[in-house]
Design brief:
This is Helix-turn-helix domain-containing protein. With 404 residues, the protein is of the alpha/beta class. It is 46% helix and 14% strand. Helix 9 packs across helix 10.
Length: 404
C-alpha cells in the first residue's frame, strides 16, 4: 500500500497583517480538503524573518512578494516557490520565473468606487500611504484610483499623509484634518487599508465632520480589529485573500508533483463588500437631523435617549422630533433603535455569543426588549437570526454584505 509523502513547506508571511492571516487560512483550508501532507514551517510568532532562509532544507515555499526583500532572497531558490502579492498596472513589474497569485488592486478600488457612486456621491478622494518599497501595493491602488477618476472625468484627489509613528502622530492627525476640511462635501473617501480608514475616522471625529453625511468612508481588508476600534462601524472591501491562499497551495502542490508553472499569473478579484454605517451616505438632510444622526451613530449603543440627542443638537425635543418626522418619516427613538439593531445583528452574524451580553453591548435595556425589537423589525428572534447567519456563512463564506 502506497503512502503519501510528507512535504516540508515554509510559509513566509507576517500574520500580524489581516491579509497575510487570510492567505494562511486559505492555505490551511486547501490542506484540510485534500490528501496532501505538508509539514509547515512558520516562525513561532508568525513573523516573516529572512535570515537563513537560503539554507531551508525543505521542498517548497509560499511567500509574500509584496516585500521586495522576500523576492530578492528567493530569487535563486532551488526549490519550488509560489509568490503571493498585489497586482500591477505594468505587466513588466510582475516577478519573473515563479507562479504568482495576486489580489486585483484595480477591482478592489473599482468595487469601493462603485459602492460610493451608488450612494449618490459625486466627489471622491483616496487616502493612501507614503511611498515606500514595502507599500508598492498602495501605489498600485493609487494608479487604479487615478485611472478610474480620469475615465469618469472626476478630479484626482490623493492624500498620502505621514507614516504611523508615535513621534509624528499629532502632526499626522492635524494634516488629515486640514485635508478633510479642504475637500468638497459630501465626499466619498477610499482608504487603501482599514488601518488608514480608522485613522481618518478618528480625524473626522476630532474635526466634527459627520460620517457618512459629509464624509462617506470605506476601507480595504475587512479587518475585524479595525472595526472594533472605530466608534462608527467601518465599511470595507473584502479581499479574496483566502481564495488566494487556496490557489497558491494548489499551485505549489502541483509543482511538488513535477508540474512546471513558471510565470503563471492568477489575479483574484475581491470577494465583496461589508457595508456598514461609515459609507451609508444618504441625500442631504436638514442640518439638525444630520447632527442628530451623527451623535446617534456614535452613542446609540451607550443607552442614549431622545432628550440627550436634542441637548446635543441644541434644540427642544419636540422640534427635533418634528424635523425627524418631516425628513425621515420616523422618530428619533426609531433612529436610535435602528443603530442598536444594526450593531446587534453584526455581533450575532459573527458567531455564537450570549444574548444578554449582546443586549447590554448594544444599548438595549434587556435581552427581552431586544427579542421584542427583533421580532417586530426583522420577523425573527435574535437566536434565529444568528442561526440563519451561520448557515449563510457556511453556504457562501467569502461573499457577503452588511445590513443595508
Amino acid at each position: 500500500m502506497s503512502t503519501t509523502k510528507t512535504h516540508r513547506v515554509a510559509l513566509l508571511f507576517n500574520a500580524n497583517k489581516i491579509f497575510d492571516r487570510e492567505v494562511i487560512t486559505g492555505i490551511a483550508d486547501y490542506l484540510s480538503s485534500t490528501r496532501s501532507s505538508w509539514d509547515l514551517f512558520l516562525e513561532e510568532d508568525f513573523r516573516l524573518r529572512l535570515p537563513g532562509i537560503e539554507k531551508w532544507q525543505g521542498d517548497g515555499i509560499i511567500a509574500d512578494f509584496d516585500d521586495p526583500a522576500v523576492a530578492a532572497a528567493l530569487a535563486e531558490s532551488k526549490i519550488p516557490v509560489v509568490a503571493v502579492g498585489g497586482s500591477y498596472a505594468n505587466p513588466a513589474d510582475y516577478p519573473r520565473g515563479v507562479p504568482y497569485v495576486a489580489t486585483d488592486n484595480f477591482k478592489l478600488i473599482k468595487l469601493a468606487y462603485d459602492h460610493l457612486i451608488e450612494a449618490g456621491l459625486r466627489h471622491f478622494a483616496l487616502f493612501s500611504l507614503p511611498e515606500a518599497d514595502g507599500n508598492r501595493w498602495g501605489q498600485e491602488r493609487e494608479k487604479a484610483f487615478t485611472a478610474l477618476m480620469q475615465r469618469e472625468r472626476f478630479d484626482v484627489e490623493i492624500f498620502r499623509g505621514l507614516a504611523t509613528s508615535a513621534q509624528s502622530w499629532d502632526e499626522a492627525v492635524e494634516q488629515q484634518i486640514r485635508w478633510l476640511h479642504s475637500l468638497p462635501k459630501p465626499v466619498g473617501i477610499i482608504a487603501v487599508t482599514d488601518a488608514r480608514a480608522r485613522q481618518l475616522m478618528q480625524a473626522c471625529m476630532l474635526a466634527g465632520i459627520a460620517v457618512p453625511e459629509q464624509v462617506a468612508l470605506i476601507g480595504i481588508d475587512n479587518d475585524p480589529l479595525a472595526r472594533m476600534l472605530t466608534r462608527i462601524p467601518l465599511s470595507s472591501v473584502i479581499q479574496g485573500a483566502q481564495e488566494m491562499g487556496r490557489t497558491a497551495a494548489h499551485l505549489l502542490d502541483q509543482m511538488l508533483h513535477g508540474v512546471r508553472l513558471n510565470n503563471t499569473c492568477i489575479l483574484v478579484p475581491p470577494a465583496g463588500i461589508n457595508v456598514l454605517a461609515s459609507s451609508k451616505h444618504e441625500a442631504t438632510r436638514h442640518p439638525y437631523v444630520m447632527r442628530a444622526c451623527h451623535f446617534i451613530r456614535q452613542y446609540a449603543c451607550q443607552g442614549i435617549k431622545t432628550d440627550q440627542v436634542a441637548d446635543y443638537v441644541g434644540i427642544s425635543r419636540s422640534s427635533l422630533e418634528a424635523y425627524f418626522r418631516r425628513e425621515l418619516g420616523y422618530s428619533v427613538h426609531d433612529q436610535i433603535l435602528r443603530f442598536r439593531l444594526e450593531a446587534a445583528t453584526a455581533i450575532l452574524s459573527n458567531g455564537d455569543c450570549n444574548l444578554v451580553d449582546v443586549a447590554l453591548r448594544c444599548g438595549f435595556t434587556s435581552s427581552q426588549y431586544m427579542h421584542l425589537v427583533f421580532k417586530r423589525e426583522l420577523g425573527c428572534t435574535p437566536r434565529a437570526y444568528q442561526q440563519r447567519a451561520a448557515e449563510d456563512r457556511h453556504a457562501a463564506p467569502l461573499t457577503y454584505e452588511g445590513i443595508v
